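$ ./design --mode recover --in tokens.txt
reading tokens...
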């Protein structure tokens, strides 16, 4: 039987494992031992080596005894820093950090739910469909693990990603694409007190460009943000170089393209006005994803949620995940919630009652209908 006590114990054990992005080796070893101890077949790639990390994506396979559609259940192993020496605080069903680190519910809560469902399948020798498990590395840094994954390890094209915040019942089916942008303005140095007219202030040029951009909520599908500005030095020197980073997200690739072009035009106009130069670089960090609501995967996820007495909350989200990367390679994903809140902060917490509900949904989806 599913065990809420075991679920919590395993979660506590996992969050104490140090596993920031690019440094998931210990967490990978923990997962591999778990699988080996239960004679579950698995493979691990060398994704981390490709971007300076020390971990790899893990894919496990548990052969089923039916011809029903195989399903993969996925979660990521890395967590946002600070995450050294996590000290979980237990208050009833709520587990939180002690305020000095993140907790790691994002996404060890997802891993915990998946493994508990597997545990019950194995203990009961229950009838089930073909099950794949995917545990990725470096999801929190632009999904580098999934981007460098050996896709030959995962023939299953339908994935339930257990990595959404909020109470159980959320089924995220649509997420935007993201363009990452870097821009540098080049001015001309001069003494700011003696001969400022001989200089060209790069900060002023960049500020003029940014003032003309569409920033924040652009429409229901599109957002934009300036993330960081750097450059300059002493106040008595006219700044000759300044850079800024930005992002644009949209569910529409056409709108995304248009907003990138608008942002670059703002830079071009500002450089012309200031009689200076600039460099504008951009790239797709990840493409958009959308699961067809008529797909078998969505119907199975929704049905399992309802049969556990939980109202499905089908939603569009504004953040990216491994689902975006996998969609680019032809995989279908439903992203479900597991009770985590205030993720990416030292106030992070998770409701183990919600994790247990998610576990029951996953367990039901693993079973033969």
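writing sequence...
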């Amino acid at each position: 039987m599913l065990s809420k006590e075991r679920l919590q114990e395993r979660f506590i054990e996992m969050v104490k494992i140090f596993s920031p992005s690019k440094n998931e080796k210990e967490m990978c070893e923990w997962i591999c031992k778990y699988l080996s101890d239960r004679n579950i077949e698995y493979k691990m790639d060398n994704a981390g080596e490709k971007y300076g990390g020390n971990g790899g994506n893990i894919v496990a396979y548990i052969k089923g005894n039916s011809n029903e559609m195989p399903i993969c259940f996925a979660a990521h192993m890395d967590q946002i820093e600070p995450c050294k020496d996590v000290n979980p605080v237990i208050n009833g069903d709520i587990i939180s950090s002690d305020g000095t680190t993140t907790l790691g519910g994002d996404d060890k809560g997802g891993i915990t739910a998946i493994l508990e469902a597997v545990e019950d399948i194995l203990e009961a020798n229950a009838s089930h469909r073909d099950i794949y498990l995917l545990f990725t590395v470096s999801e929190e840094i632009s999904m580098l693990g999934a981007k460098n994954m050996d896709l030959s390890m995962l023939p299953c094209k339908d994935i339930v990603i257990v990595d959404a915040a909020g109470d159980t019942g959320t089924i995220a089916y649509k997420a935007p694409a993201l363009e990452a942008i870097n821009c540098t303005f080049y001015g001309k140095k001069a003494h700011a007190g003696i001969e400022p007219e001989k200089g060209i202030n790069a900060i002023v040029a960049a500020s003029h460009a940014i003032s003309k951009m569409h920033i924040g909520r652009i429409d229901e599908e599109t957002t934009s943000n300036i993330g960081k500005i750097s450059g300059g030095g002493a106040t008595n020197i006219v700044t000759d170089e300044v850079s800024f980073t930005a992002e644009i997200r949209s569910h529409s690739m056409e709108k995304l393209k248009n907003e990138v072009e608008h942002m670059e035009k703002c830079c071009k106009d500002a450089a012309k006005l200031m009689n200076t130069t600039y460099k504008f670089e951009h790239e797709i960090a990840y493409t958009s994803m959308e699961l067809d609501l008529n797909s078998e995967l969505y119907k199975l996820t929704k049905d399992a949620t309802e049969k556990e007495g939980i109202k499905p909350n089908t939603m569009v989200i504004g953040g990216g995940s491994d689902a975006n990367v996998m969609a680019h390679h032809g995989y279908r994903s439903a992203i479900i919630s597991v009770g985590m809140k205030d993720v990416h902060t030292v106030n992070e917490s998770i409701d183990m009652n919600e994790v247990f509900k998610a576990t029951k949904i996953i367990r039901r989806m693993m079973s033969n209908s």
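exit 0
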